[in-house]
Amino acid sequence: DTAVSQTPKYLVTQMGNDKSIKCEQNLGHDTMYWYKQDSKKFLKIMFSYNNKELIINETVPNRFSPKSPDKAHLNLHINSLELGDSAVYFCASSLDRGISYEQYFGPGTRLTVT
Amino acid sequence: QKEVEQDPGPLSVPEGAIVSLNCTYSNSAFQYFMWYRQYSRKGPELLMYTYSSGNKEDGRFTAQVDKSSKYISLFIRDSQPSDSATYLCAMRGGGGNKLTFGTGTQLKVEL
User: Fold this and answer.
1) What is the pLDDT of residues A77-90, one digit of tens each?
2) Cα–Cα separations (whole angstroms), residue A72 to A44, A51, B87
3) Which residues of B touch A (CB under 8 A)?
4) What is the pLDDT averaged over residues B39-46?
5) Per the CB < 8 Å rule, is A108 touching B43?
6) Which of B22, B33, B37, B68 is the residue whose CA sits 20 to 30 A from B105?
């Protein structure tokens, strides 16, 4: 029973294309995140939504646009893909109650831009 | 300079060894300290969590935080081949859920 799921798992596309990655969590959490992990394994937050409201928006090109249709879903749309966007993108979720510390991560989407 | 520094390794140890993984950080506002384990081609999973300074033990794993030195450690006793993974330290301040991660240390435990 998958807690945080992402689709697709692999995405290979050409420069200039537009693509979307979807994320769903069935944990009843109210906060969801998108992270980017580069080839050196460095994991960096991109966005965070709490109850469909954007609360963290790091310095990310505006070609990246997150959308949260409801608390259980957070999608990431990327316009005009560039070579440097190649990375693994992780979705995560957490419960924003008291000392919420555990973020549950999805399996990742490996994006390759050629 | 990154807010959180971590030696990327790789670190290779024989089975049964004691492993020490470390992170240093510069932001004195960090209060919550975590260690995540990430197997190859998987998402990170929370291993240990510590609030402020002190030690925390869970089975073969011990997490230590020294806020005065801005230094955190994860010790793995009696290491097993199944411990082979990348270990990421993460930390956050008192408000909000934003985690700042280290670059991860790749550990290989060999038979």
Assistant:
1) 999 999 999 999 99
2) 22, 9, 28
3) 8, 32, 34, 38, 41-46, 49, 51, 86, 88, 92, 96-101, 103-104, 106
4) 94
5) yes
6) B68
